[in-house]
Structure formats: C-alpha cells, structure tokens
Amino acid sequence: MSRNPPTQDVDDVLIKSRRRCALCYASGDATVKSGNVAHIEPVTDSRDETADNLMFLCAKHIKETHERKAATPMKLRAWRAQLYEAISKEDNTTRTTPPKVFISYGLDTTVIHEIAAVLSDRDVEQIILPKRLDPAFITLERLQLNLSADFAIVVLDKPAKDPAELFELGFFLGRLGPERVCALAMPDTLIPRDISGAHLIKKDASGRWKNSLIRRLAAAAIGTQSPE
Question: pTM of the predicted model, to two decimals?
Fold first, then answer.
C-alpha cells in the first residue's frame, strides 16, 4: 500500500502544479483539475518518499497510474517538468489587478487583524465582509458581492454549529472549490465532520496556522510576496 506523502511535500507540489494534471497538460488541457498528489512510482517499488517522486494528477490519471496503464516514470517526470516550466513562465507575467481575498467572520474581531497582517506581505486586495449575525443576514446582495472573490477565508468562531458561517463556507466551497477556500477554526470551536479536510486550518497559539495559510494561498496562486 502506498503511504501518504508528507504534508509539506504535498503543499509544494500543489504550489508548483497549480492543481493542473501534467498528463492532461501534455495532451493540451491546461485547466485546473479535481485530483490529488500521487506517487510517480509506488513507494513499495522505489522506496522513494521524496518530493521528486510526487506529482499532481487528475482522478482519471491517478487511476491509470495505479493500474500501471500510464506512461513510464521517466515520461511522467518529463511531462511534470514541462508543466512546471509553463507555470513558471505564467508567474512572470503581470496581473493587472491583485486577486481579491474575502474574509468572513462572526464573533471574534481580533483574528481579523492577525489575518490582515499575514495578507499584508502578499499582493492581494483584502475585503473584510460585514460581521455574520444569523442566516437571514446572508442576503442576496452579500452573495452577489462574494461572486467576485478569488480566495475566501471563513473564520469558524462559534462554540456550536452556526448556520450562517456554515452556509457561507458552503457557498465559497461550491463557488471557488476547496483549493481556494480556507476554513480557519478558532480554539474550542465545534467542527462538523464534513468540514474536515485540506481546506481546514486550526488556529493555534504558536502561530503555525499562519504558515499553513501562506501555503494555502501560494498553492492557489493567490498573490505574490510583496518586495520589502
């Protein structure tokens, strides 16, 4: 059985691939895919657990790789290199407007300043949404405003399940996809089972959550780090 690769290596692959499948790219499809980071060669065969043995693949090509129906490892690495080179060239092009990062929160206001400090080092436009109150507060106008988001940070700060924050989180996940949404759970917050996943970050006193948020932004190609 293939073991799960380290989280840091997975994040690095997501950043480099921008969630584009190298095999799809080789056939002319450069769109973002639903998929996962997979081993190029099974660890049981190669014993290689490094990032060099990882690539992002769509669901279809993950299945083919597992069934040994895909190309050789050498060819897979070559296609991965081509994809990374193309993305690197894209990163060198200038975007006319910075991406919009929406921040939605409920009870806690202090965390807004901490998030803003993290985002201040990146070339993004911060949009702090009005404080959530109840499900009725999520109006049509608010949802229309949310349509322009490139990335969303939804703070989960209620001790119990709150329909307003869960509704807005679900809206962003459906609109942007999990790779462009971060659910930031405050300490002692009850987290529903269906929210757990890569898009969930638990706020900790040590501040490691900030590095996780930065990696999530980078993986989604949201803003470059501002020069000092």
Answer: 0.64
Euclidean distance between CA atoms 203 and 87, whole angstroms: 31
Q: Are residues 104 and 190 in the same domain?
A: yes
Task: Give residues with Cβ within 8 angstroms of 204, minimum separation 6.
Answer: 187
Q: Residue 150 in contact with residue 182, Cβ under 8 Å?
A: no
d(CA 20, CA 25): 7
Which candidate, 97, 96, 65, places its Cα nearest to that of 80? 65
Residue 174: CB partners within 8 Å, gap ≥ 6? Answer: none
Cα–Cα distance list, 58 to 108, 160, 173 (Å): 38, 36, 19
Residue range 8-67, pLDDT digits in tens: 788 778 878 888 899 999 889 988 788 888 888 887 776 777 888 999 999 889 888 777
Task: Tell me: do 154 and 197 sit in the same domain.
Answer: yes
